[in-house]
Write a structure and sequence with these properties.
By secondary structure, the protein is mostly helical. It has 15 helices and no strands.
C-alpha cells in the first residue's frame, strides 16, 4: 500500500472520530452552561470547551468577546476552525474520496451522506434547536460510518489504518474530556464530591455514553475516582485510555503481520499500553490527575508522530 493511501485512510478515521468528539463536547458543554453563574455559567463552560479542543487562541483572534452563540457556531460550523464539526466531516470525506477504491460502497455512502447533511446547515447557526439537530446528526453519522466500516470492510491494511487513526484520536479525546472536567471547570473553592463536582462528572459520563456502564460496573453513587478509573484504566470501557491503547497495539500488530515488519510506533504503543495496565488510581490521584493526563496526551502525540514516520511518509 502506498504511504499516501495509508495516510488518507488514517486521517479519515481520525477526522470522523474528532467530529464525533466535538459533537459530544458541545452537548456536554451546553449542559454545563445551564448551571448558575456562581458555578461559572455559560462563559466559563464554553471557554473550557474551546481550550479542550485547542482552538481558544484562534477563537479570540476572530471574535472580540466570548459568547455562547459565537462559541457554538465556531465549534460546529465555522469553516476557518480546523476542528469544527463541518471541517472535520469535510476533510474526512476528502480523504475517503481520495481512496475510494479501498473502501466499500457502504463506507463511502456513510461519509458522503454525513457531508451532505452537514452542508445543509450552512456556516451559521439559526437557533439552539438547529444546533441540537446538527449535533445529533453528526453523532449518528459517526456511528453509521463506524458500523459500515466494521460490518463491510475486509480485515486488511485499509481497515487497520482506518481503525488506527480512530483509536489514536479517541484516546486523545477521552483524555481531553477528563482534563476539561477536572482541571479547567472545577472552581478552586468547590470541594471534590460537592454538588457541582457531581453534576460535572455525570455530564462527562453522559458525553461518552458511559453512565449505564458506570452503574453496571461499580453499582455505586457517582464518585470521581471511580469515574476516572472507568475512563482511564478499565479496558472493558471502549473509550477508556487503556482500551484505546490496547486497540492501538492490536491494530499495529495486525499491520505488522501484513507488512512483515515492526518499528518504533509498535514499541511506543506497547509501552503506553503496559503503563496503563500497571496503573493504579490511588497513585494517579496522589500524583495529580491533570499531570497524568498531560503526560498521556504528550505520549499519545509522540505515538501519532511515530506512526506517521513509520507508515505515512
Amino acid at each position: 500500500m502506498l504511504s499516501r493511501t495509508a495516510g488518507d485512510l488514517f486521517w479519515a478515521g481520525r477526522y470522523v472520530e474528532r467530529a464525533d468528539f466535538i459533537s459530544r463536547l458541545i452537548d456536554a458543554t451546553a449542559r454545563l452552561a445551564a448551571l448558575p453563574s456562581s458555578y461559572g455559567g455559560a462563559v466559563g463552560a464554553w471557554s473550557s470547551a474551546l481550550a479542550a479542543v485547542g482552538v481558544e487562541p484562534l477563537y479570540k483572534a476572530r471574535y472580540p468577546a466570548l459568547t455562547e452563540h459565537d462559541a457554538t457556531e465556531f465549534l460546529a460550523l465555522d469553516p476557518v476552525n480546523p476542528s469544527s464539526m463541518r471541517v472535520c466531516i469535510e476533510h474526512a470525506r476528502h480523504n475517503a474520496r481520495a481512496v475510494r477504491t479501498a473502501l466499500t460502497a457502504e463506507v463511502w455512502e456513510a461519509i458522503n451522506a454525513a457531508w451532505l447533511e452537514v452542508q445543509r446547515f450552512g456556516t451559521r447557526l439559526e437557533s439552539r434547536t438547529a444546533l441540537g439537530r446538527l449535533v445529533e446528526q453528526v453523532k449518528s453519522s459517526a456511528l453509521a460510518f463506524d458500523g459500515a466500516t466494521h460490518r463491510t470492510m475486509l480485515r486488511d491494511k485499509s481497515y487497520w489504518f482506518l481503525r488506527l487513526g480512530a483509536a489514536l484520536e479517541r484516546a486523545d479525546n477521552t483524555a481531553r474530556l477528563l482534563d476539561v472536567k477536572y482541571h479547567l471547570l472545577l472552581p478552586r473553592d468547590e470541594p471534590v464530591g460537592g454538588s457541582l463536582d457531581y453534576f460535572q462528572w455525570t455530564t462527562i459520563l453522559r458525553t461518552v455514553s458511559a453512565l449505564t456502564a458506570y452503574r453496571h460496573v461499580y453499582r455505586d453513587s457517582v464518585k470521581p475516582w471511580l469515574i476516572a478509573d472507568l475512563l482511564i484504566l478499565n479496558r472493558s470501557m471502549p473509550r477508556s485510555l487503556a482500551a484505546c491503547a490496547s486497540d492501538l497495539v492490536r491494530y499495529l500488530d495486525n499491520l505488522a503481520q501484513q507488512t512483515g515488519k515492526r518499528g518504533p510506533a509498535h514499541r511506543q504503543a506497547v509501552a503506553l499500553s503496559s503503563r496503563l495496565a500497571r496503573g493504579d488510581m490511588n497513585a494517579i490521584f496522589a500524583s495529580g490527575l491533570h499531570e497524568f493526563i498531560a503526560d498521556f496526551l504528550a505520549e499519545n502525540y509522540r505515538l501519532g508522530l511515530a506512526i506517521q514516520e513509520q507508515y505515512l511518509f
